[in-house]
Amino acid sequence: MSGANRIPGAGRLTPAKTARFFFDGKSYAALEGDTVASALLANGVHLVGRSFKYHRPRGIVSAGAEEPNALIGVERDAARKQPNVRATVQDVFDGMKVVSQNRWPSLAFDVGAVNNLLAPFFAAGFYYKTFMWPKQAWKHVYEPQIRAAAGLGVSPTEDDTDHYSSRYAHCDVLVIGAGLAGLSAALAAAKTGARVIICDEQPEVGGALHYDKSVTIDGLDGFTWAQATAANLKRMTNVKVLPRTTAFGYYAQNFVGLNERVTEHLAKPDKKLPRERLWQVRAKRVIIATGAIERHMVFANNDRPGIMLASAARTFLNHFGVTVGKKIGVYTANDSAYEAAFDLKRAGVTIAAIVDSREKPGEGVLAEARALGIEVLTGHGVVNTSGNLRVSSMSVARNGGGAARSIAIDALLMSAGWTPSVHMFSQSRGKVAYDTETQRFLPGAYAQDCLSVGACNGTNDLQATIEESLAAGELTARASGYSASEKLELQGHNAFNWTGGMAGAAEGAGPDTTVKAFIDFQNDVCAKDIRLAVREGMHSIEHIKRFTTNGMATDQGKLSNIHGLAIAAETLGREIPKVGLTTFRAPYTPVTFGTLINHSRGELFDPTRKTPMHALEEAQGAVFEDVGQWKRAWYYARAGEDMHQAVNRECKTVRDVAGMFDASTLGKIEVVGPDAAQFLNLIYTNSWDTLKPGRCRYGIMLREDGFVYDDGVVGRLADDRFHVTTTTGGAARVMNHMEDYLQTEFPHLDVWLTSATEQWAVIAIQGPKAREIIAPLVDGIDLSNEAFPHMSVREGKICGVPTRLFRMSFTGELGFEVNVPADFGPAVWEAIRAQAEPLGACAYGTETMHVLRAEKGYIIVGQDTDGTVTPDDASLGWAVGKKKPDFVGIRGLRRPDLVADGRKQLVGLLTKDPKVVLEEGAQIVADPNQTVPMTMIGHVTSAYWSENCGRSIALALVAGGKARIGETLYVPMPDRTIAVEVSDMVFFDKEGGRLHV
Amino acid sequence: MLLIYCPYCEEERSELEFRQAGDAHIARPRNMTEMSDADFEAFFFLRDNVKGLTFERWRHLNGCGRFFNAARDTVSDKFLTTYKAGLPRPDISALRPAASSPVGTAPVETYEATEADAK
């Protein structure tokens, strides 16, 4: 026997297929198909965890996804430990290790349970009121202590070794839920030929047919019909049936996220299989068939292990063949619980009594109870329970008072009625409407192309559910252009139609009581906590929720929300719909981060862009830095060199001999067409009409507000063709900026823009020997200073391949930038290197590039500018065409604040101690002795050690900076204050003669 | 994730291919240099941030690359229509669909409808 509470002949599992698992180290027997919950109950284990706040012993409440209590840890190995798994949805597999949570040192003896005795001090809102003083203690004492005590499970510390997959799918009809309603709807839709996807969170279809054994469909037992129907659907090529798949989020335009658990139930999963699969489904129509969730009764000490939902006990019996006790009590306000008692009684279990809060239960169930010899106490309530680690008795009293009678039990089933699962409907932005007669929130106005059917639509009657679902299936398929050849009919039959239901506190837990009648088990929220919240001034349900934490646990209040709302409404003296319902949000049930992150881990987290010469640079010892998505060679360390030494050597070599640099990441845009110059006139501050073919110009681009947006060198190749370069990081947004203006503001211009960033490999050769290095390789271009002056561009050949050769410089040295088609980049790099190295030149990286340009005062947009800098602020006012009638930013530049005195301007800073290098971002003050907070007049934007200058250099944005040249300012740092002298921005070769050799 | 109809590709494509680009129908003045500070402020800085029907620009960035305009309800996120750049604002009253749900009774949730409920 796989557990003493397994009833021979009951349930649908196969007795021969056994498995063993461990719970807190102890070995238990189970059957294949068991959940952890059913297997534990089969072995008589009800105590499975401790509650969050009071550490009260807790058991299994439900048999499904709504479970608030039975949260466990499942451990496969050190990396694969899943905390907070609901025992009611996790299949048992052979060798599985399960641990209980939130207890120390053991589940049966938990030190934290002292909180239960201290409960009067832990009322709702306790945290908000208690930890206010002293202020400092929050950060250092209260928060760390509360964080250590909070939370249930423990996360694994190692990286997740599982893998996850992701898939997009499209269909005509997506059916969420594969119970009677969902299967009927899917069948009707599928028969028309429409593409159908039907998913269900359980391992097999059937929904409520798992427990409701009284249902027959077309003469077949309901559960058997469900399996046969699913098998039918699976055979159809236009249908996809997805069990173990939860629709967790309903997004815009019928975009629904599904989480398929592929291997979670397997003892030894195939390594090739993903643990979970994310489905992103775009459906033309959605049918929501998510059923209803049974509510618990709210009475004193209703949280003891052994107290559970009636439908759960019925599931454990009828599906798993497990009885949850030997002498069972029932407490209900609804007929459905009677059927649980009937099934158990017929299986040979003693039913102690059915306690019904109503005076008049449904006549059918009452008669049947009497026929079975079950005592029914109508108009009574369970006013208390006892039993420490498992319920042992219930105290029953007549409604309105009177002596309580104690009845010995070992399990107590409860039902306060059914809450339609409107989660998906509400997530689709549909508006729920309150049905006063049945006291339920039901789908009201739809916002998307979807339909709710069955219990989640408030339809109770079995045959009505079938007909509504068949019609919905056909209707949605027809809306997608399919039609049915024959009308489907199904005939359903069940034993009883259920009546009744209540929301809020039951007998003995009403206003003016202080008993612990739990509404939210997981967050330990009692009926009295809701009342306290109202008394303390929380009148909106959203405030009450946050004050009490009702519905804020991982189960998101699937059991508790309606009770909390009803108690709040009663206390406020308002009707339920006037108090309002909190918003349902995704995910419906917790989804692992692995599923959501999916493939986007490690190298696949973000695309990596590498230049054509990347491998060669790597072989040369390059250390790379990330610039956006690009990997750029940062510096080339030689044996024994640290970064500082490598950069100093590279800087010196470039100015003494020459250096080669991979500039391929620069953005490149080809601007072509009869109106190309006119377009650039509008986009840049400069004037382009006067630029002759074969010449280049440094251009500045503004936003309409007048601030610097990007810069770069533009070469004119022909009257109607420009080669535009942008910053590495700005390439995409500059292209977008240009396209925007061309398409929407200047559409009359005949211009084409083409991104050419990845088409060209770019090798910069900079330094006194640059010409000597490339001369032997270049064909058809006269490289002499006279024929090919600084800021020119020529087309010709290098190493026999076509090149656009620029004479330009970002170092202040004689320089060339060789553009060749990307595929030729590595060969040309190697050829240039073969010329360069014998002359003593070297490759240099981005750090050296930064130092060399700073020595010359060349700015980097985005480092020395921050989106509030004008060309004039950056001493680039010369680049703004004064006579131009229009360009982007022309009006912005004239705004009062942009022409006012005292703006922050870019200047150079020289530390009084030349060896001290400033920190980029450091603040600058005029008077270091002023009181704190000091008046900060600017900040350091760039700071380096300059080997060529033999001292540190820096650029800074300083208020009224240009007028302060020669002044001494101060940079206060945590350990000292650094005195600096304001200078101009050029630190090396101030005359610029080296550019023109 | 939204589905957006590109009026140039004449196809409904996933939101992943598009980039929102701010309010539509704000023409860049021809006489920029003659504008008063107040006019420039209104043109460049001031936006309505509408709750409800809004006209906005989108770019089919990872598709045809074209900028186009859309009429969208910012409460329901529903697109009422999309149209090519340069075209005038369409007549929205003619576009309000009665219902798009298969049941035929489901109203489209708009800001106006929501407000009416609240009142």
From TrEMBL, chain A:
Pfam families: Fer2_4 (PF13510), GCV_T (PF01571), GCV_T_C (PF08669), Pyr_redox_2 (PF07992), SO_alpha_A3 (PF17806). The keyword Heme does not apply. Keywords: Oxidoreductase. InterPro entries: 2Fe-2S-bd_N, BFD-like_2Fe2S-bd_dom_sf, FAD/NAD-bd_sf, FAD/NAD-binding_dom, GcvT/YgfZ/DmdA, GcvT/YgfZ_C, GcvT_C, GCVT_N. Residues 516-596 form the SoxA A3 domain. It comes from the Bacteria. SUPFAM superfamilies: Aminomethyltransferase beta-barrel domain, FAD/NAD(P)-binding domain, Folate-binding domain. The keyword Cell membrane does not apply. GO terms for biological process: tetrahydrofolate metabolic process. Signal peptide: none annotated. One of its GO terms (molecular function) is sarcosine oxidase activity. Residues 172-430 form the FAD/NAD(P)-binding domain. Belongs to the GcvT family. This is Sarcosine oxidase subunit alpha. It comes from Pararhizobium antarcticum.
From TrEMBL, chain B:
Residues 96-119 are annotated as: Disordered. It comes from Pararhizobium antarcticum. One of its GO terms (biological process) is tetrahydrofolate metabolic process. This is Sarcosine oxidase subunit delta. One of its GO terms (molecular function) is sarcosine oxidase activity. It comes from the Bacteria. It holds the Pfam family SoxD.
